[in-house]
Amino acid sequence: MQMTISELQNLLDRINSDLANNGYSKMGPKHIFGYVYSQLLLYAKDNNLEHFDLKKAKQFLLDRFGINSSQPNSSRTNYRNQQVRAIKLIFDYQKHGRIRSRMTDNYTDSCKTTQENKAFRPFFSDYQKYLSSLDLAKNSIYLHLIVANKLLLGLQIKDPEELRSLSEKDIDSFLTKCHFKKANSASTNVYSIRHFIRFLYLHKYIPNDFSELIFAKRGLQGHELPIIWSDIEITKLLKACDRTNSTGKRDYAIILLALRTGLRAIDIVNLKLANLDWKNSKISLIQEKTKEPLEIPLTRDVGWAIIDYLRSGRPKTDNPHVFLRHHPPFERMRGSTSLHGVMKKRIFEAHLRFDSPHAMHSLRHTFATRLMNNATPIPIICSLLGHTNIKSTENYLRVDINNLRLCCLKLGEYYHE
């Protein structure tokens, strides 16, 4: 990451140009970044620097602004954090050639184990490559890395060599101490740990593959019922989106799209203008989770909501994605978590009580349950949801109360009051 001062000057010129072209406010980050960069060049001149690298960048922040960049962001004011971000942007821009809204490359950059113990850095890098080879979604890879890291920390394993003695009893002990609040959390962790054990066996860290011997504890093997929104709650939720402003138009279109199509949050984030077939009133895309193609109807109300956003709310940019951030850089929204943030905000404004951190997925549950209540055949629901296995769709049978009542057995002649 080292560069000459001449290369630094050219890089800063390109960054300043891109800041202006990406719509950054003159009195916002662009102003702060510009000030930091002018001070950096003066610092390089005053100290007769010939080269610039990360070590010198940290020293510059300490000498010029009194900022210790190794301390957490929460210990600094927002203004100071923007100054640190300006320096981080230099090295990120050097690597990627553009201004990114999020300057991280993968989970291993922020993994506690890799920060505390350098021995695990190549280990986690290999595990990430292994997961990628399985053609898993990015969010799934991220989850598996988190669980693996949590397992290593929980078992106090400080070196990859210590993994040779890992046994199913260790895993069982770890799962017992986790105290999962939800059944789904236990199942998800077990699923991730099985992936991790297979990786350890295939890469000869452990002598035996005992992944199939790992199970969730009794009492945590079930699943919660899908969370469903009532018609009244949906009306309040949509009204909470103020369609007189651009953000309200975007959020209204996103929520309505999820309600009418059941699309996953990540597929809504990834939705591109090219996926919208206006002539045939349908949406065609490749699902992020399954990598399978999906074709669903584009209803009139959803279509008009998207048109309203495209005409009067969406930032003017060449970005191919339908839904964008409304702060520069005007890029697609930051993964499915950004949509959960949208839902959380609108739920609060609608004065509704909802505790789930995956609020956006509840709209998918609502879509499927409505189809079920309308006597839509399971295979059709499976197709609309993009499920590759019909068993995933059968999960919604548990909330079809009316039809479940038809399955009740009479008490019979052996019942006595």
Give the topology, please:
Blueprint: E1 3-4, H1 5-21, H2 29-46, E2 51-52, H3 54-65, H4 78-96, H5 112-116, H6 121-133, H7 138-154, H8 168-178, H9 183-202, H10 231-239, H11 246-261, H12 265-270, E3 276-277, E4 282-286, E5 293-297, H13 300-312, H14 335-349, H15 359-373, H16 378-385, H17 390-393, H18 401-405
Antiparallel strand pairs: 1-2, 3-4, 4-5
Helix pairs in contact: 1-2, 1-4, 2-4, 3-4, 6-7, 7-9, 11-13, 11-15
State the strand order across the main sheet.
3-4-5
Q: Averaging pLDDT over every residue, what do you get?
A: 83
Count of DSSP-assigned helices: 18
Work out the count of structural domains.
3
Q: Output the radius of gyration.
A: 26 Å
Using the coordinates shown, work out and report the CATH topology of the largest domain. hpI Integrase, Chain A
Counted beta strands:
5
Order of helices and strands: EHHEHHHHHHHHHHEEEHHHHHH
Q: For the record, give the distance between the C-alpha atoms at the N and C termini, rounded to a whole number.
A: 82 Å
Q: Name the helicity range.
A: 40-55%
CATH architecture descriptor text of the largest domain = Orthogonal Bundle
